[in-house]
Design brief:
- The chain folds into two domains: 7-104, no CATH class; 116-221, Lambda Exonuclease, Chain A (Alpha-Beta Complex).
- The mean pLDDT is 92.
- The strands form two sheets. It has a five-stranded mixed sheet, sandwiched between helices. The protein has a two-stranded antiparallel sheet with strand order 2-3.
- Strand 2 and strand 3 (135-138) form a beta hairpin.
- The protein is an alpha+beta fold.
- The chain has seven helices and seven strands.
- It starts with 6 loop residues before the first helix and ends in a 32-residue tail after the last helix.
């Protein structure tokens, strides 16, 4: 159940894969256009939909040499939601709009005409991490470059969220650990791709960086208090929420009899 995903998340994965694929193509000197990006989104969504619809995740033979996490199991299929075919068509339309908006933006034009040798990461395949005073923190940066001022960009295919700024601040800590970038001299960008293109950028203050470090350490302590590193957790520490709206997209709701 921990590997169950949903259509909004799958749509976001398709958008990110199309953008990173386009940037890798540009770095190799290829001409990448919007139609190519749209086709890659269509193919990925079609493939993932079929994996989920045929319940490939439940077949030992189908899963040969693949991890559960690599096979799509849609929340909408698992819990029997109606109109999944139409929902994935809608997700495709939104994903297409996302790549169209970003590839028509001035930000994109600036990136693809810059020196690719200064591009640091393009949504790398591995799941990188860094050490924060003994805590292993995992991150996955969408794109980073040092053409001019060091810059980290996060592509956002969904709605704005107050946590977006915190996420970028953690990325700044990662960049300091990996490339020795000073967070106070690093531009952080959240690029919202739909319904229209909107770019929000800022340079963090040293107070924000210190606050983010404290937040990560505090969150880690809170997690360990609820779920010890070894041995079973205490179920009494996890009371059922009274907010049933929070249960709608919960991957584990079947365990509560939902």
């Amino acid at each position: 159940m921990r590997c169950i995903t949903n259509l909004p998340k799958l749509r976001g994965e398709a958008v990110h894969a199309a953008i990173s694929g386009a940037l890798r193509g540009v770095r190799l000197g290829q001409d990448i256009d919007i139609e190519t990006a749209r086709q890659s989104i269509t193919e990925m969504l079609r493939c993932k939909y079929q994996e989920s619809y045929t319940k490939m995740w439940a077949s030992r033979e189908s899963r040969k040499e693949r991890k559960w996490s690599e096979i799509c199991n849609l929340h909408e299929h698992y819990y029997g939601y109606p109109d999944v075919v139409q929902k994935i068509r809608d997700a495709r339309e939104v994903a297409w709009r996302c790549v169209e908006n970003v590839m028509e933006s001035d930000l994109w034009k600036g990136i693809i005409t810059s020196d690719p040798k200064q591009w640091m990461e393009i949504d790398e395949e591995e799941f990188p991490c860094f050490d924060l005073e003994g805590i292993k923190v995992y991150t996955k940066i969408d794109f980073a470059h040092q053409n001019g001022k060091p810059t980290i960009i996060d592509w956002k295919s969904g709605a704005k969220n107050p946590a977006d700024r915190d996420q970028l601040l953690v990325y700044a800590l990662y960049a300091r650990a990996k490339w020795d970038w000073d967070p106070a001299h690093t531009t952080l960008m959240a690029a919202y791709l739909q319904p229209g293109f909107e770019l929000i950028e800022f340079t963090p203050t040293r107070e924000e960086i210190e606050s983010t470090k404290d937040y990560v350490k505090r969150s880690f302590d809170e997690i360990l208090a609820l779920e010890p590193a070894f041995g079973p957790a205490n179920i009494d520490d996890f009371p059922i929420t009274d907010n049933k709206r929070a249960c709608l997209m919960c991957r584990f709701k079947v365990l509560c009899g939902e």
